[in-house]
Each structure stands twice: as C-alpha cells, then as structure tokens.
Amino acid sequence: MRTNLHRHLTDPLTGVRNLGILAHVDAGKTTITERILYVTGATYKRGEVHNGTTVTDFDSQERDRGITIFAAAVSCAWDDHRINLIDTPGHVDFSDEVERSLRVLDGAIAVFDGVAGVEPQSESVWRQADRYGVPRIAFVNKLDRAGADLDTAVASIRGRLRVTPLVVQLPIGQEDGFTGVVDLLRMRSLVWADDRGTFREGPVPDALREEAHRRRRLLEEAVAELHPIALEEFCTESAISAQTLAVALRDLTRTGEGVVVLCGSAYRNRGIEPLLDAVVAYLPSPLDVPPVRGTQGGTVQERAADPAAPFAALVFKVNSTATGRLTYLRVYSGTIERGDAVLDAGARRTERIGRILRVQADRHTEVDRAVAGDIVAVVGLKTARTGATLCAPAAPLVLEPPAVADPVVSMAVEVRRSTDTDRFASALARLVEEDPSLVVRTDPETGQTVLSGMGELHLEVAVEKIRRAHGLEVGVGRPQVAYRETVVRGVSGLLYRHVKQDGGAGQFAHVVLDVEPLDDAGDDGGTAGFVFRSTVVGGRVPREYVRAVEAGCRDALAEGPLGGHPVTGLRVTLTDGATHPKDSSEMAFQAAGRFALREALRASAMVLLEPLVEVTVTVPDDAVGGVLGDLAARRGRVLGSTARAGTVVITATVPLAELFGYATRLRSRTQGRGTFTTRATGYAPVAGAVSNGTPSR
Hints:
This protein has 697 residues and is an alpha+beta fold.
C-alpha cells in the first residue's frame, strides 16, 4: 500500500478524479469498488457481494438480490489524489441511474468479463458514455476463470465498440494459474503472492520476454498511428520511450481516440493497484475537462472549474433517509459552505444549505465546505429535484439536466387498506422524486393508479421499496408494455375546416394536410419520430398560424386511433389553407391542426408497435433445445448462438410483453442453471394489428 493513504488531503483540483465504474451486470463492478476501497485504506475489511457485506450495495434489496440497483458514491485516496467513485448498476432496467451518474462524471472505468468480453449492457453503457463524452479506460476482469482470455476480450472491444484498444499489460499465467501481469510501459512484472493484495515487482519472466517485447512493439505502433508526438519519436528513434507513451496514452484517453486496457481478477485482489495508477495517470481531473456550459436569459455561458468563480452545481440524485432528505451534487464551479443560500435556477426558488457531507455509500462525514470538482451530498434542501441547477443567487445559470428515458412497462398498484391511501400517495411521490424514470398516473377509465418504469425488475424493486420503507401492503396487477402506433399508408389532401360561431368573436381555420410514413422514425418510440413542414405559398396561411397548426398536430400525437397509444413515425405537410380577416386566430388554427390530424390518422392505414428487447441467454448444452423452443413460443427471433465451455450463449430479439415471468420459466427448463440478460432495441409492428383506414370526408 502507499504510505500516504491516510493523510488528510487538501489537494488542488489537479489531484481530483471523479469517475464511475460501468459494465454489464455481474462483470465485477461492485467487487472492483470494494477492492479499491480496501487497497486505498478507506476500508479495513474486504466486502463480498455473495456475503452481502459490500460498502456500496448497502440497500437490503441489493444484498438480497446480489446486484447493484442504486448508484452509490464513495471517496478514497491514492498517490496524493482524491478519487470520488460512483458504482453504477449493470442491469438494463436501471440504465437511467447510469445516465444520471455519467452526466456528472469526468471519467470512467469500463469493466469487461474476461470470458464473455463485451456483453449487451456493456455496449449500452459504453454508448451512454459516448453521448456525454466521458473518457474511459478498460479493465478486463475475471482472468482467473476457466475460459478467460485477454486477447478474445480485446477483440470484442475492438469489434463491438469500434474503438482502438491500447493494451498496456500482458497476463502472467492463465485461468487458475493467473498470478500477475507484465507492465508493458515500464517492462516489469507485478506478481501477487496471495489474495490479500500483496505483490512484488520484478523483471519480466524469461518465458514471456519475447512475447512482452512483441506486444510492446504493437502498443508503440498503435500509439504512433494516433499521436503526432509519439509518431515523430517512433520515426526518429524506431521506438517510443515510456515517458512519451504515458503522455500519449493520457492524451488519447481524453480525446477518446484510444482506450487503455488493463486486466486482472478483482475477486482475488489482483490488478487493482495498477488500475488505480492508470486512473491517476490517464483519466482527467476537473481542470482537464471543458468548462461546463449553461444558459441564462437565452444566452450560453461557461463556468470554469474554479473555486473562486460563482457557484454552480447540478443535482444528480435525491435520496430520502430516516435522518432527512439527501441531495447529491456535482459542484462545477465556485464554493459553498454551511448556511449558504443557493438558487434553484429552474424553480426560481432560494434555499439554504444545512449541512455538507462527504459520502461513503450509506455513511457520511460532515465537511465545512465543498469546492469546484467535488461530489457531495447536502442536507436542508426541500424542493430541489434531480436535474436541478443550484447556483449563486447573484449569478443564475441553468445547466443541462440528465436525459430521462420514457417508461416502457406499466402496472396497476393499489394499497390493500383504504386507511393507508394517504401514506401510499406520499410514498409514491417520494419514489418518483428519488427516481425520475418512474412515472405515476391515474388511469382515467379505470381510476387505477398506474406505475410505469424501465422494466419488470425496475417496477418490482420500486414496489418492494414501498413495502419495506413504509410498511404498506401493496397489491400489483400484471405489467403492461408501452405500445406505440405509426402510419404505414397515409392520406393526401385531407381538408378540414374549423368553424365556430356562438356569439362574439368566432373561430375560423381552413387547413389541408398530407400525412405519410416517416422512413427514419428511429427506435425511440416517442414523438421524436415526427416531422412537420409547410409548402403553403402566397401567404395563404401566415407563419404564426403554421406554428399553431404544428402545435395542434403534436397534441394529436398523444392518442392514436388503434388503442389510444402515442403516435410516432409520420411526416405531416401543410399544403394549403385559408383564413378569415376577423375570426382566424392561433387558437383556431391549433384546434384545426389537432382535429385534422386525428381525422387523417383514422383515414390512414395504421399499425401497432410493440417494444422489442435483445435477450442473451446462457444455458447448459443439454438444455438448448427446450430454451430455443420456449423463445420461439414467445415470438422470439434467434440472431445467433455461441458455444463456450459446456454452455451455449443464445442471442434473440423478443417482444417485451412475452418476457414477463421468463426468469422463472428459464430456471425450470434448465434446473436453475440458465441465466439471461436483456437490452432494449426499439419497436416493431405487432403481427395482425393493422387498421386499413376509413375514407376521409
């Protein structure tokens, strides 16, 4: 261990690393976090997922299920650097938790299974990180497992993620014999003598010297292709020094042109120290990332990571505890202290900071202040929601909030005892406040309370949280998926006249619409798959009325003619219209657009869309036939299969509605040996659910 781990750190911003750990479920994220805390001296006992003793998986449901559900923040110190670390969930149902974490991080460790390589959710979280431009290094874990192979995992990184992996280590030993790594930069060996993390440094073993030199040469060539300074040295010296390589790897990591790849076995405590060294060496500090951008009064402003600048922070998580409401912040600029007044820029409400806490999962240490680059929790804010910007009242600014995905699964929930109705409503409100990807609404037809989320497990966890935290008996209905409707054959020249005269000023609007399918509707299933345009000439419909027609059309997209589902994937063209000198108004044209599009949709050929998921099923050889038959019965389409050491990995696309209860079915067909994961892939037509349209009037 480093001798300086227990100092009280007062590092400048260059000594801060804000990073997350991203991966597919069960790739080892939480175990890596536990080993980092242990190696850095932040904990004195190694937590284990299977024993329910981890620091970051502290929630009772996480320990019961053995998976990470809620993103947890911890802090530790390494080599005079402070590392603020967020352990994120790997299950697809909790991808919104990953999204909120990525919004406030400066870097990330992407973890890959040494046997499976890039798995479906690994790819999804990688794309999420791409959207936010978060620099990453990769760690290939579980190299001690049977079938683990670094080269195969690296090939999947290159092929599936379409990035350039820059492998800086060579494993010493394979599978059960994995004992250490060769550091290709400094050409040394690191060998772990036991599972407690004790290692010794030495020369490259004779048996690996030739292979190590070959791989060092490949690393130099790969870096030279991407980095001009390294290329210049490579051309003049026919080699690249360790110092130049380190600088080049740092630059390539920050630009995303290359991904540094390390390896190890977190469970056996092998490879954690070099991983921490790579975090410090290659991932950026708050000063290395571009200034945060926000808006004020319609103009874009930038705030540098400067403790002396006006205060600006983003709320990325809200958590209600027995001791009060915790609001998690990423401070981008300025400084706050206890008792300071801050402005919630979106709500235009001023609140006061009660306490500032340095977070260690479910434990907290009170601090006097927080500065730019910090990730902390504060107590005392009553109304600030996830995505809110907190700033200095004298220098308001609104930062871009994290994106929130549309729910895909819904189910009816009700409280068993009528006397608990008020407590139930309060519990639901608190649930939605903590997790914005959950939506609660009342069905206007049945009067039922409907809870919507990102998947069956997501809703199951939410309901169980209400039961445990609030002691309520909650009943649930069968989950329902979020269908969409789209146009497969539109209509042309649909004329609609909106005329209303009932005393006083009347309403008059005349519109002619063309409706057609939108070829590039996308897979979001939302109203993003909608394009409106106008080809009206001669000023027959003034510009402000054209905007009103578009607004009316967007209103009509909320409910389609097949079943009242949202409509997506269409293009509407306003081709003609007429106005009245006195009775025409924006309100009249908005109503005309709404009613005209509703009529056009009824006259069009429509199709119902259902959400699809990509399912990756891992089963024993002797259960493949039964599993394939079950997938076919669920309207699944098999994409491929791969044999791996006595098991077969099957990939298929299956309608989400057919997957409810699949976990139990799979366990029964495989005697408990089968596992599966899912990843949302978009929407597809439901067979037979097509309306032919009715003639327009």
